[in-house]
Amino acid sequence: MSTKKIAIDGPAGAGKSTVAKAVARTMGFVYIDTGAMYRAIGLGAVRRGIDASDAKAVEKILDELTVTMKHGPQGQMIFLNGEDVSEAIRMPEISVAASLVAVIPAVRLKLVELQRTLAEETDVIMDGRDIGTYVLPNAQLKVFLTASPEARARRRYDELREKGVQTTFEEVYQDMLFRDKNDSSRAFAPLRPAEDSVLVDSTEWTLQETIDQITDMVRQMTGDLPERS
Ligand code: CDP
Ligand code: CDP
């Protein structure tokens, strides 16, 4: 039997992973964070002292980098060569390294293969930049989740401060603008809405409103509609 697939794409800080995690929990899908995979490769490059924008240098070490994922009660864990890097990949400098290695076709092909394999095994809700357009073109539901750059930077800044990461709003905002541009302008599988995606702008919405809206779309898709009194 073929598995159910939901694609959530959009720019950084739009709420993709938080919403996808919540929907996965309620609707019994496995959540797959593809951004974490690009972050793991970015981390691997940074740790080896390699410039993440140097495609040749990154390609040279690509075979040495093995990315795996595990799904447990605490959610998704990501491993780089067997080491749990779930926390290490969240540092701001790794966001930029991830966006730089994500331009390299060899990196994308390696990770897309892993993503498609995971989506064959079970019902998935997968978030990223190119899920609806490239990774899972046959996904039954495609959402393009966005919000204004200011709202997205504010959300990410609050999140980092809560974790105790030293940064400024301006730094987070500039990092986001850089990634938006870099992710949208690359030649291979850029960030853009799939033609058959539903556009959701969460700028003025609370997190719960966004979760409810997308959960409703998933219920429509699966036919699992709540009873109305
Ligand atoms: O995965 P993505 O980068 O798109 O965003 P995220 O990591 O899910 O969300 C970034 C932060 O924004 C999280 O702390 C969310 O709780 C928050 N958020 C929010 O405050 N309001 C929303 N409507 C959506 C997300
Ligand atoms: O959490 P946030 O939205 O900040 O970023 P992420 O989803 O963790 O992704 C980190 C970077 O990986 C992005 O800026 C993209 O450059 C890249 N990425 C991608 O190119 N394709 C994907 N399917 C997912 C992420």
Automatic annotation (TrEMBL):
This is Cytidylate kinase. Its EC number is 2.7.4.25. The lineage of its organism: Bacteria, Bacillati, Bacillota, Clostridia, Eubacteriales. It catalyses: dCMP + ATP = dCDP + ADP; CMP + ATP = CDP + ADP. InterPro entries: Cytidylate_kin, Cytidylate_kinase_dom, P-loop_NTPase. It comes from Ructibacterium gallinarum. HAMAP family: Cytidyl_kinase_type1. Belongs to the cytidylate kinase family. Type 1 subfamily. SUPFAM superfamilies: P-loop containing nucleoside triphosphate hydrolases.
